[in-house]
Amino acid sequence: MLRDHRPYWLKKLDLNFRAWYVEHFIRPQLEYLGPDYTVMKPWHVDIFGGPVSIGKCANIITTDDYKVRFTIWQAAEGLGSITIGDCCLICPGVRISSAVSIKIGDGVMLASGAYITDSDWHGTYDRIGMEDKYAPVVLEDNVWIGDNAIVCKGVTVGKNSIVAARAVVVKDVPPNAVVAGNPAKV
């Protein structure tokens, strides 16, 4: 690991600027943001729609070329929400898109490029209108979603489960399981 050679005052200035940015540009877009968060390069967090809630001690990491995106495109009035629990890790490139409801438990880790969606968004032939194919997604506590994995509509991933890199999850995952492949299998 490389040592941070910046003077302490410069590092503190950077941390204070990040906190200021989150408070002035990110928090107003969220329904709730818990205390003790860490957002690296918060100017690369995109939030479209709401409500989005993020619990305490969240760690969100972004990069210039791999933004974190929270998108809500309501399937009907009153639907569409993203709820993220306490002590979660969200790595660069994570995309979470909700039409109905996405609930993420405590201690969940989302690796780079993970995509979570609760809708098909459009049909094969009608690409303008939204399909009526949507169902809530639930990631229970201590779930780990690997690099570039996809969690599709209607899926519940049980406690302490791991979704392998590049897996495509289309069915429920039992607790304490590891799934891999396309479609993902235990």
Structural topology:
Elements: H1 8-26, E1 32-33, E2 38-40, E3 45-48, E4 52-54, E5 59-61, E6 68-72, E7 82-84, E8 89-90, E9 95-98, E10 102-104, E11 109-110, E12 115-117, E13 137-139, E14 144-145, E15 150-151, E16 156-157, E17 162-163, E18 168-169, E19 178-179
Parallel strand pairs: 1-4, 2-5, 3-6, 4-7, 5-8, 6-9, 7-10, 8-11, 9-12, 10-13, 11-14, 12-15, 13-16, 14-17, 15-18, 17-19
What does this structure look like?
- With 186 residues, the chain is mostly beta strands.
- The protein is globular and about 55 Å long.
- The protein has one helix spanning 8-26; strands at 32-33, 38-40, 45-48, 52-54, 59-61, 68-72, 82-84, 89-90, 95-98, 102-104, 109-110, 115-117, 137-139, 144-145, 150-151, 156-157, 162-163, 168-169, 178-179.
- The mean pLDDT is 93.
- The strands form 3 sheets. The chain has a 7-stranded parallel sheet.
- It contains 1 helix and 19 strands.
- The chain starts with 7 loop residues before the first helix and ends in a 7-residue tail after the last strand.
Task: Give the key terms.
186 residues, mainly beta, six-stranded parallel β-sheet, 1 helix, 10% helix
Helix-and-strand structural type: mainly beta
Order of SSEs: HEEEEEEEEEEEEEEEEEEE
Strand order of the largest sheet: 2-5-8-11-14-17-19
Strand content: 25-35%
Provide a short characterization of the protein structure.
The chain is mainly beta and 186 residues long. It has one helix at residues 8-26, and strands at residues 32-33, 38-40, 45-48, 52-54, 59-61, 68-72, 82-84, 89-90, 95-98, 102-104, 109-110, 115-117, 137-139, 144-145, 150-151, 156-157, 162-163, 168-169, 178-179. The termini are far apart.
